[in-house]
Amino acid sequence: MKNSIKLIALDMDGTLLDNEQNVSSQNKEAIKLAKQQGIPTVLSTGRSLLTCREYAESLELSSFLVTSNGSEIWDSSFKLVDRNLIEHAHIEKLWELKQKYNIHFWASTTERLWREEFPDKIVEHEWLKFGFDIPDDSIREAVLGELQESKQLEITNSSPTNIEINAVGINKAKALMKVCERLDITMDNVIAMGDSLNDIAMIEEAGVGVAMGNAQEVVKEKADWITSPNIENGVAKAIHHWVLS
After folding, report:
1. Rounded Cα gap, residues 104 and 99, in angstroms
2. Catalytic machinery residues
3. Which pLDDT band, with edges at 50, 70 and 90, does 3 fall under?
């Protein structure tokens, strides 16, 4: 299996990063060793380019970046390769949900991350992702119920208490498939690692799908292999086991 792996795809929060949002020296070294063997690493994250570029630069990555759960793909020079937006009408409904339930939100547009503020004119912005953080289980289930009435949204999460929304059909797996086409490989040549619902698609489609030891149970059920938690260098352990010769 090691000989067939040609690309490493890593989620960031809860996967590559520890709980202080740092990359451990062990994870850095494993990524570096894989690169020396001609196997690049792609960050495949719910984060926008604004909040993951610094990590890509510090790791000296030389491949693509998948951001905003697959809404955008960037090349190694941080030039835009692909972009998929949420329609303005959907953003209006999501904002109405936020107000109806008085819940915390965040949203990514092509130019910034919105948290406390929200623009007066939704149509003047290009929307990549919308998210809610809802610690209350009953409220979260109610919001999910309303969201699932729409067939035009992709609904996942990046932690047990949040909900993340992208345009329908947009996910990390679809973006990685486009990356594979550009690299002249297939998803069978990919090892993908993650911990949350927004990682399931790529874990299922990859040749080797790895769940972190701290992953949500449903993610572990879909994975081919379970590594150590993010705070115990699980990424490095998986790279050494599946990739490095």
Report:
1. 9
2. 11
3. confident
